[in-house]
Amino acid sequence: MRAPVHKFFSYYKPYLSLFITVLACSFITSFVTLVFPLLVRYITKDVLEGDLSTALGEVYWVGGLMLVLVAIQNISNYFVDYRGHEIGARMESDMRSELFAHMQKLPLSFYDKEKTGRLMSRITNDLLLLSELYHHGPEDYMKYLVRFVGAFTILFFINAPLTIAVFCFLPFLGLLALYFNKMLNKAINKNKERIGDVNAQVEDSLSGIRDVKSFANESVEIGKFNKENARFLESRKHTYKAEALFYNSFETIIQLITITVVIFGSASIVVNTTLDLSDLITFLLYISFMIEPIQRLNHMSTQLQEGVTGFQRFMEIMNLKPSIENSSNAIILPEIQGEIEFRQVSFCYEEHLDSVLQNLSLRIKPGEYVALVGPSGAGKTTLCSLIPRFYDAIDGEIFIDGINVRNIDLESLRKQIGFVLQDVFLFAGTVMENIRYGDQAASDEEIIAAAKHANAHDFIMNLPNGYDSEIGQRGVKLSGGQKQRLSIARVFLKNPPILILDEATSALDNESEKIIKSSLELLAKGRTTIIIAHRLSTIRHAGRILVLTEDGIVEQGTHDALLARDGVYANLYAKQF
Ligand code: ADP
Ligand code: MG
User: Fold this and answer.
1) In this structure, which ligand is nearest to the CA of 374?
2) What region holds the ABC transmembrane type-1 domain (predicted)?
3) Exposed (0-12), middle (13-18) or buried (19+): which is 532, by Cβ within 10 Å?
């Protein structure tokens, strides 16, 4: 527990002097607010009941003092409002950067398990709640503590018995606040859940709108939606009821306190002279100072809870260690030949899952063009993911040019390997920026050359803004084949000695496949290439074909040799033709 507490406060460190200034201003603001009723008392009691010949001068004097205090109070409160929020926002921004950087380093196995939506809410909502706590927490505690202690002390000196009488009401208020806090939180959480359900229903119905219409099931969807909508309404009614009950019970007790003070105060003015009229007025002015902190207990404890939960969720991710990291003496790869070797490699995705690869050994010579075929789910993609260490083998070793990949600096390892996959991901931005993803230092000319190699130049020039056309939501929509050509241009630019083509043409129509095949052949020239393909016609010219099944690599050889063997490959081939 100590380490997280230390970590929680460590984010104040860069802003410590500013933070202390804000706290001091918060103190000044509260202190000045406390002085006002005292000045009213001074005027009504000492000035107006004293020597009236000098009274006017004194009234002006006190008035002047009040103006100065108002200025001090509001200037320091401006500082608290502005700079205090700024500190919170800065801390939040620091944490967000730290969290994002950390997420970038987490291995793929983390993203296999986590939903992107949930991760996004960590980066936004959770940290927002935390920043509220970071600055409002200390400020509010300071403010209410000063007011409460100050008001109590002043009242006690004015009239101890009446102060103690008022004080006796406070525990009831406190208990009431705590009781309702629980109830309100429950109601508010239920609201959040219900609005979540409404959103989920909208998303479901709208994303499936084609099916809704083709089955003419609009009324079914409307029915489902109205049910969720009604449930949300019900929970809101519940919340409002709880809120109304809370605020009005509270108000009742406050009014009871006021009545007590008025009645007993007036009575004691009549019966004896321990209290006078100005004392009574002062009393009434100060009561709210004692009650407000208790009224705010509810809000403050919610703020604390939400902030602490936000911090725990933040730490949950920060505590995950990037399991795939550079070893302490990682080697930066020099220019390599491109030899790949698997020695007795075993792999499974998670401890309890079946192993995907078992004792697999394999050697690919520099510049070799090797095809990997086999039934879907055999582990072809998995095998290729181990080379750049997207995942680490459970057992056995993988070497590039004779160096164990675990001893190679990750960045320099991944620079050696280019992937062309079935699903292409393009980032928001222009065509130019997307190709430059292959090499951030590339010049425009190099990018255009890469696009030409990838057979992409012509269609890019036909886009409304050529290389500056925006891609994605608000930009041009590209066909599958066009996207694939951009991803190939990217790899041309990267120029890696090892190339992995994983079902790169599987999703394409015959026409695009032809164009892309020719640019892939050009890309493969001079590189060690592993090609995975479902359509065996795509790989029949490969120098060597490896057949991977759940029993490992069961056959290898050229297309003709494997057909002659009449085994698994021949069987797969016969099915396709
Ligand atoms: P192939 O590429 O030969 O079709 P894969 O390498 O994609 O096969 O998958 C091999 C096995 O590993 C399959 O049983 C698949 O369900 C499983 N698998 C693939 N990716 C993951 C993952 N990220 N997490 C857990 N299991 C996975
Ligand atoms: Mg695959």
Assistant:
1) 1
2) 20-306
3) buried
